[in-house]
Amino acid sequence: MISARELARPTAKSAKRRANELPLRIYSSIVLGALALAVTWAGGTVFALFWLVAAIGVLWEWAHITSLRPLWFGAGMIYAGIFFVSMLLLRSDPGLGLVALIWLFAMIWTTDIAAYFTGRALGGPKLWPEISPNKTWSGAIGGTIGGLVAGAATLVVAGLSLRPIHALVMLAVVIAAQLGDLMESAIKRRFGVKDSSQLIPGHGGLMDRCDSLVAAAALALLFGLARAGTNAPAEGLLLW
Asked: How many whole angstroms separate alpha carbon 99 and alpha carbon 83?
């Protein structure tokens, strides 16, 4: 295992490795994104099975990282369960379920991309160096702006009227996505693990790819349930 101090220490070698992995990361992201969109469009059993497998994979990686410690494994079951239920309930809304998930994907993916390139271009103070040494405040702010623009554009394309409250909801979801990423980094640092697994070329494991989505989908579902209950959580989330 790698020590937490070594994980938190950025090096020229690690920076070069990340640069070399960029094309592979891009190809993997395109394939995974297309697959996620396809099953989301299909809905029904295909969608449910896809995200059930993803949630089980996340739980398996969580158990591997935490060495099957009972309390941590229990937390992992809750984490994976929230992930699956959030995706399932949002998509099950017959009105705006598809739109809600495409909206989530657009914000999360754009936030990730914008944060990466803004952080590399501008640099500056680190966001939380002990936990994630490569993330900067400039990247977090750039990612947030990118996510908000992507979310607003998705709603407009879907034919929904934008209201001021949408900006607050989108801001909360984008911040939740970034906090979800940081939380997973903190867990890996706690147990001296670099990646949750090597399942996805250039990315690591499912947890590395789904950490932002878990937090964002859970918060989005809470917004929807609070306003419309389980019958139409996506409408409660997007219609104001």
From this structure: 18
